[in-house]
Structures are given as C-alpha cells and as structure tokens.
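Tokens as discussed.
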C-alpha cells in the first residue's frame, strides 16, 4: 500500500512524480517499438498487443504445458494413465489408450507455429509404441486442417525421446495428434510418455525475447513505486438533483434540475454538453469575458504586488473598478488569443517597462498606493519563495517535481499539541536526504498545524480560498531568518560555494550579491559585510568549537577541504545577506 485510501472511488496506479512519468513514457515508447518489430517478424506474423503475450509466444519451445486443456479422441484410458499425463513434463508417467491404432489427443496448446513434434516412449512394451502420426490444427476445435503426417522414428530405449521435423508455417490454438499405426499390428493399446509440440526460435526471435524479458522487468520495477490517484468520470446514469427545501438533504422539492449556469451570467452555447466539458468550453469562449480577466488580474497581482482590480476576490458589484480598464481588456484578449499561455503572459509582464521601473517613490508623481504603477513593484517575497531562494542559492534545492509531501525540520511537539485522538499525524518525523531540500510547494501541510516557517511569513492556512496574501513585518520573522535550521544550513553551504568559486573576499562579495540581488553591493553594503567577515573570523579563531558547531548544522556534509573558520565566518555573512531586505524583497 502507498498510504492513500481511495477505496471509495475510481482510482489508478500511476507514476509518483514527473521524473517517474518521463521514465515510464520512455518505457512505453520502447514497448511500442518492440511490438512493432515483433509484428514484422516472419516467424510470428500475428499481431502482438502486449509484452506478456509476446514473451509467452517467444519464450518457450514447447507449446504444450502442464495444465493445458487436453482430451483423448476416445475415452478408453485407465484412470491413472490419462491424457493429461502426456503433457505433465514427467517421463515417469504415461498416457495409455486401449483403442490402439488411430487413437490420439486434442490439445489446447499455447498458440504458435509447430515445427517439430517430440515424443517420449512409455515404459511399457515397445509393441505399443506409435510408428506414424498425423497432426491437425484448428481455431475452434471443430474444424481441423491437416498440418503434417509421417513416420515416427523408432525409440532408442524406454523413456527415450525422439524428434520429428515438419514443414509448417501456420499457427493454431488447438492441435489434434493421431497415431494411425503401432509397432505391432497386434498391439491392444497405444502408449506415449510425453508429447511436445515444438517451435524453433530463429535468431531474430531470440533477440526479441531478450529485449522483451528485460523490458518487462524494467516495467515491473517501475510499477513498484507507483502511487494511487482518483479518477474523475461521469456516472453512467446522472443522478437526479432537485431543490432542497431550506437546504435539507432529505427534503427535495419540485421537478429534477438540469445542469446549467446562473441566468445572470448568460447561457451556455447551443448544443454544448451539459457537463464539466461544456462548462469549461463556455468559460473559455470569447463570449465569456470574466474568466480571462480574473486570471490576468491575478497574474498581474502576482508580478506587481497589486492587481489592476484591487479586489481580486470580487469582480462583482461590490468590487473596485480597474485602474486601467483598457489594459485589462487588452491583456485578457491577448491571453485568450495566445492559447491561454500563462508563460507567455508572465513573460509579457516581467519584460514590460512598467515592471522594470525603479521602485523608489517619485517626487514628481505622488501616488502612495502606486495605483497607477508610476514606479516598479516593491513587496516581500512569499514564504515558499524565501525558503526556495535560500536552498537554491546554496546548491541544496532538489528540483524534482511531483510526488508526496515532504517534511523539513520543525520544532518538536507541534503536531502532538494539536493532535486529534484518532489522528494518524501525531508525531512529526523529519525526512532525510534529498527530500529535506525539495521545493516548498511539496512541504507537507497539516491543516491544524502548518509548517511554522510558512505561517510565520503569512502563507494562508488553506482552510478557505485565498486569492491575496497578507504581508506582515515582525521581529520574530527576523529571528527565524537567522536561526531556523535550514536557513543556517543554507548559509553554511552558500559559504562553501563562495569559497570555492571566489578568488578573494572582494570577488566573493560581488558573487554573493549578484547571486541573491542581481547587482553588485553598494559601497555601504560592501563595507558592512567586510566588517562582519572580519569580526566573525576573529570570533571563530578564538573559539574553533563554535565554528565546528556551525558546520555540523543540517544533514548536508561539509567540505573537509575548506578551512572551518573561513566557512563559519562566511556562513554568517551569507546568512546576513540572505536575511536582508535586498534578498527578501522584490523592489
């Protein structure tokens, strides 16, 4: 079990993340190519539709196996020497038929081209051995076509095997093998220990088999890591929906209702299906102006800090009018005609002259709230971005996409204090390895106790929809930026990066600011950082154990080739710049 409980609905087992999806798609492509090659193989012209069937077709020379359906052409056999014992892969048993000449078997074998017949002599007297054969093939078990007939070579000894080659290129599902003559015309029964209907793999088939087996194993190993996900689909018969009196579920009134949209928003196009597909088409049609405007406004808010409409959660009568209605209309149409391409819309905004303005207040254009976007945006980055920025700059960020939630370090006991007696999330156990450094998008979210670094920097609780976050500025945030374990670890690894990539202290400071702020440090910033670096070196030279404690923070290993004092001192500088307004603000 993968921990998900989806017994109550339709669900699928699927790859757990994007990397696994890409790997699975590559396996499926290889499978498709392999099956296409198999269809062109001369010896196996029938269409193969999956690896299991192809493997079965290629993998065994013997088309008869223990457990295949088999019957005698006449029912004159002892109870302990039945037709099933002719294909049980045991030469110590045998099939005996008292009808003698003309007796035989009908075998529902594995489908394939029979090119040889192998017979193993029974332990009884040689006079009962067959000396000739006739082989027929059928698809339905009623109409049989002759494949081959001929002589059976003399058996060298009891329980010894002989092979008979036949000229055949047709595959059948059911075979009938008859023995018209026996070694002695006076024999009262026909005996045979084992019957094998053989195909002879050619070199091309052997290569296909190796590839098929390898690919099947790869797919089986990949499927071990699959996760389950719900599948949404329409009911075969839509349920009856009625108005509920006073909202009571057990008090339906009136005639059944049909799916539709509020009358105040118009009507769905004629002929549109009355389901989610029809609703989606209506929402994205050119006749529906609302959806594209709402999306454009939210992307604008994401980029500039405030939307063209300052009430992103209310485009109705109680919402505020757009500050730039014509711009909102133009962007909405551009978004629609551009195929609803969010990346293109985002690129359009961040490359605009409006976004690239200086964010400093303008004496010639007083606009305290920047309603008219006369200056560039300035706001604190979101909680998730702050964490990801620190991990990315230090080289710790794991860019893997998809998968289950991850648990970075947090103070002990937080879940336990808020647990429900029946909850299965009582104890928080932090992840290990690369999972500690996954993007904040994948941080496990417990509704009653989100990760403290998320709530501290105003991430919404997710108890209700939130289209605009609040932004606070508190002393506790500053303490967390300097002391939260992953921030300290990120500062340490960023320090190692600076020491490796920079030739001297001046070059390292230039690199640090370019990496985090996209510009070199000002003279005041450079002087402050140089003074901090000098004081921290003096501090850690006087107390090497304190420097070692800095290097021990977090799960990422330290680079032993670097000096402990240098790493610790630069870690403090890196953490300081990471926590400064220059790094945590967009301006």
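Sequence:
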């Amino acid at each position: 079990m993968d921990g998900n409980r989806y017994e109550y609905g339709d669900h699928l087992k699927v790859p757990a993340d994007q990397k696994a999806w890409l790997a699975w798609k590559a396996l499926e492509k290889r499978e498709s190519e392999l099956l296409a090659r198999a269809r062109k193989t001369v010896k196996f012209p029938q269409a193969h539709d999956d690896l299991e069937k192809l493997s079965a077709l290629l993998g065994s020379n013997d088309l008869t196996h223990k457990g295949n359906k088999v019957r005698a052409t006449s029912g004159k056999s002892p109870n302990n020497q039945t037709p099933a014992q002719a294909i049980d892969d045991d030469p110590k048993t045998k099939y005996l038929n008292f009808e003698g000449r003309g007796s035989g078997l009908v075998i529902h074998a594995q489908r394939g081209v029979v090119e040889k017949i192998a017979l193993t002599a029974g332990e009884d007297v040689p006079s009962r051995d067959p000396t000739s054969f006739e082989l027929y093939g059928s698809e339905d078990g009623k109409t049989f076509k002759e494949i081959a007939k001929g002589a059976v070579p003399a058996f060298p000894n009891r329980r010894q095997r002989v092979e008979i080659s036949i000229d055949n290129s047709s595959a059948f599902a059911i075979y009938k093998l008859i023995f018209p003559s026996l070694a002695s015309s006076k024999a009262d029964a026909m005996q045979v220990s084992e019957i094998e209907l053989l195909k002879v793999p050619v070199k091309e088939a052997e290569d296909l088999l190796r590839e098929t087996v390898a690919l099947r194993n790869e797919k089986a190993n990949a499927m071990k890591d699959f996760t389950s996900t719900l599948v949404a689909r329409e009911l075969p018969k839509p349920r009856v929906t009625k108005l509920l009196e006073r909202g009571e579920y057990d008090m339906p009134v009136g005639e059944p209702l049909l799916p539709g949209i509020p009358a105040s928003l118009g009507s769905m196009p004629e002929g549109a299906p009355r389901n989610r597909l029809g609703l989606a088409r209506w929402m994205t049609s050119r006749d529906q102006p609302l959806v594209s405007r709402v999306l454009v406004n939210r992307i604008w808010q994401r980029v500039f800090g405030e939307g063209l409409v300052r009430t992103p959660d209310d485009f109705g009568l109680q919402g505020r009018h757009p500050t730039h209605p014509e711009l909102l209309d133009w962007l909405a149409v551009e978004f629609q005609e551009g195929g609803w391409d969010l990346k293109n819309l985002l690129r359009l905004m961040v490359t605009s002259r409006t976004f690239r303005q200086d964010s400093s207040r303008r004496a010639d254009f007083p606009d305290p709230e920047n309603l008219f976007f006369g200056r560039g945006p300035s706001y604190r980055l979101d909680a998730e971005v702050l964490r990801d920025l620190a991990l990315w700059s230090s080289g710790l960020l794991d860019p893997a996409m998809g998968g289950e939630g991850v648990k970075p370090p947090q103070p002990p006991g937080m879940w336990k204090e808020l647990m429900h007696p029946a909850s299965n999330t009582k104890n928080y156990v932090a992840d290990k390895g690369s999972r500690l450094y996954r993007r904040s998008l994948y941080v496990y979210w417990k509704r009653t106790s989100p990760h403290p670094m998320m709530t501290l920097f105003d991430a919404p609780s997710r108890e209700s929809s939130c289209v605009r976050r609040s932004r606070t500025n508190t002393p506790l945030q500053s303490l967390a930026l300097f002391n939260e374990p992953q921030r300290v670890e990120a500062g340490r690894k960023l320090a190692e990066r600076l020491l490796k990539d920079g030739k001297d202290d001046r070059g390292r400071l230039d690199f640090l600011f370019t990496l985090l702020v996209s510009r070199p440090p000002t003279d005041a910033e450079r002087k402050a950082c140089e003074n901090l670096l000098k004081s921290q070196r003096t501090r850690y030279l006087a107390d090497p154990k304190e420097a070692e404690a800095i290097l021990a923070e977090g799960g990422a290993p330290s680079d032993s080739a670097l000096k402990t004092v240098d790493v610790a001192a630069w870690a403090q500088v890196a953490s300081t710049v990471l926590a400064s307004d220059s790094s945590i603000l967009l301006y």
